[in-house]
Amino acid sequence: MDERARSRYRWDLLPQEWPVAEVPIAMWPFEDDVYPEGYLLPVDVTGTPLRWRDFGRRHGVAVLHYGHYGLFAADNVRLPDGTRGRVRLAPQGPHWRRPLNDHNRAWSSAAVAIPVHWRWGTLTIGPDDVVFEDDQSLPEYMLQGRNERLDYDLCQSSEIRNLALTMEGCNALYGLLVERHWARSPDDESCSYTRKGAARLLAKIRGLGETFYDFTSPGWLCYRGYAAEHERISRQLERRGWHDVTEKPASLSADGAGASDGMPELLRTMALFVVGTMVAFFILLAITILAPV
Predict the structure, then answer these.
(1) DSSP letter string over 128-176?
(2) pLDDT value at position 47?
(3) Domain residue spans of the chain
(4) CA 267 – CA 264 distance, rounded (Å)
(5) pLDDT of residue 119
(6) Whole-angstrom distance, CA of residue 164 vs CA of residue 181
(7) Burial class (CB in 10 A: 0-12, 13-18, 19+), 244
(8) What is the largest CA-CA distance in the chain?
(9) d(CA 10, CA 15)
(10) What pLDDT score was predicted for residue 10?
(11) CB atoms within 10 A of CB 197
(12) How far, in Å, CA of 237 to CA of 191, rounded?
């Protein structure tokens, strides 16, 4: 028997005759709900394999799936309309959700690009069945803090939302939030976003039941590119009184005047440090050479 397969289970909890998969278990969801041999824990076996080993448990017709961090997905659960389907713990749980469209591709990393509309809810686990109940009170992105006014304006714009539903517009808005500072007037405190904060706001604007992790984990978001979408979003912000107040380096004149003023502050500081270090080194060297023996 393959040692890799043998190491996937805690043998003191399982009968020795219980079949174990000879190859590593495939990732959930399993095609046509066909599970590899040795994956489902028999109903008459008590105890649980080690937490970091993949396995499943039957609860009537439903199947719960466990991985490294515990329970994360369920197949064939009873849904609010009486049908059965798959649900999964949302990234960065602890809440569950089900897809309202494109059920076959909803579980792929491309879900944000489709896009998939998710319905949040709770999972009730019984010995003979598993039931998913809708609960739209979870979760909710709160508009608060110094970015609240810009958050509100972005969420109220139907054009920005329509752009954000495309991956081009989503990336453009992400770049404008992360790399730029916005204010209504020079005297106002500017609004700026961390990468996580921008991704959370994108999830709020799109309104599809996503979390920031849907965007950041698969690596869908980037800072640059999408010039046309940048321009459209910037115009929408300007119409609402928002201006880009990001500090920019002074441009160089034709004869090179002002080159020092245009140098970024960090590079200027580093250059002064290097020059000062070299001057100090040569002074110490001269003292050493000229000092009497």
Answers:
(1) S-EEEEE-TTS------STTHHHHHHHHH-HHHHHHHTSHHHHHHHHHH
(2) 60
(3) 3-134, 148-244
(4) 6
(5) 94
(6) 19
(7) middle
(8) 98
(9) 10
(10) 37
(11) 17
(12) 12
CA–CA separation, 284 and 167 (whole Å): 59
DSSP-based helix, strand, coil % in the chain, nearest 5: 35, 15, 50
15's tokens: 């009968």
Confidence of residue 50 (pLDDT cuts 50, 70, 90): low
253 by Cβ neighbours in 10 Å (0-12 / 13-18 / 19+) ranks as exposed
Residue 37: both structure tokens together = 């041999």
Query: What beta strand segments (E) does 176-286 contain?
Result: 182-183, 243-244
Which tokens is 180 given? 């730029």
Choose among 140, 159, 120: nearest CA to 203: 140
Burial zone of 110 (CB within 10 Å; 0-12 exposed, 13-18 middle, 19+ buried)? middle
| Helices 148-156 and 195-206, packing angle to 10 deg | 30
0.90 exceeded by the pTM? no
Residue 126 to residue 181: CA distance in whole angstroms? 51
Residue with tokens 């028997």: 1
- Scanning the structure block, which residue is given the tokens 């304006």? 153
Check if the beta carbon of residue 105 is closer than 8 Å to that of residue 114.
yes
Long-range contacts of 126-129 (CB under 8 A, 24+ apart): 126/59, 126/60, 127/59, 127/60, 128/59, 128/60, 129/59, 129/60, 129/61, 129/62, 129/77, 129/78
3-state secondary structure of 268: helix
